Amino acid sequence: MKEHKSGFVNIIGNPNVGKSTLMNAFVGEKLSIITSKAQTTRHRILGIVNGDDFQVVLSDTPGIIKPAYELQSSMMDFVKSAFEDADVILYIVEIGEKSLKDEKFFEKIRSSKTPVLLLLNKIDISDQEVLEAQVVYWQELLPEVEVHPISALQKFNVKEVFERIIELLPVGPAYYPKDQITDKPERFFVNETIREKILIHYKKEIPYAVEIDTEEFFEDEDIIRMRAVIMVERDSQKGIIIGHKGTALKRVGVESRKDLEKFFGKQVHLELYVKVNKNWRSNERQLKRFGYKKG
Fold first, then answer.
1. What is the pLDDT of residues 160-215, one digit of tens each?
2. Which residues pair with 91 in a beta bridge?
3. Domain ranges (residues) in the chain
4. The model scores a pTM over 0.85
5. Burial (0-12, 13-18, 19+ Cβ within 10 Å), 66
6. How many CB atoms lie within 10 A of CB 57?
7. For residue 150, what are the CA distances in angstroms to 61, 83, 123, 147, 164?
8. Which fold has domain 5-168?
9. Which of 139, 227, 268, 295 is deepest in the core (most CB within 10 A)?
10. What is the CATH number of domain 186-289?
11. What SS3 state is found at 38?
């Protein structure tokens, strides 16, 4: 009988490099929301992959940025914590990148005693000559790090990387029950699904000024009834979210409900409201309430 392996595998990188796509490819479920906008991931989200003789606890963290306000500082705290408990670090970059946006994080990678796999993502939109040059560049810059070219979107080389992760994990018992796929509660995924639609459909500052609070979640045998509030910082943002005759808000509601019905596997009734919560992104108490700071 094989020894059981278990450990934390933390995914870090700049915004928009495909961290969430890779996480979902590993887990086989849509746990992390994915859009083309930077700062889509705000929290540290765990995805748990179980086998007979292993448990891989994957951690998707916010993209590394230089913080401009309190919310972003809290997001970077989640990234810092990813260095502290990792058994394996996945440092994901895309073709053409040269380093992390924050030099301190790059130095942590360079001096890490934890095994680091550098995943060169989006090779499906590159050519062989460029790819080979990029592999050489990263191997010279970080000689202690393993470089693996991948396409998270096309799932190219993803299985091979996952097998390498299992090889690197320490022997030990599972951290979570074997039927669990994440550490987040159901309401978290309701919030994230709604926020994803707002990131997709609204421009400029609006998506970044929004937080979602699912106030009610009642599950019956064949239907889940949800009531969620979309928080914005200003009255003008509230009007934009609602749109002319409520059409913009209705679109968010319809698309969110369809995704949530797929996620939960049953009918969903979703009510959406919009409220102004002034300057919540810079308010310590509000950030604790929404889980960005420890209370």
1. 999 999 999 999 998 888 777 776 778 888 888 898 888 888 887 787 788 888 88
2. 12, 118
3. 5-168, 186-289
4. no
5. exposed
6. 24
7. 19, 22, 6, 10, 13
8. Rossmann fold (3.40.50)
9. 268
10. 3.30.300.20
11. coil
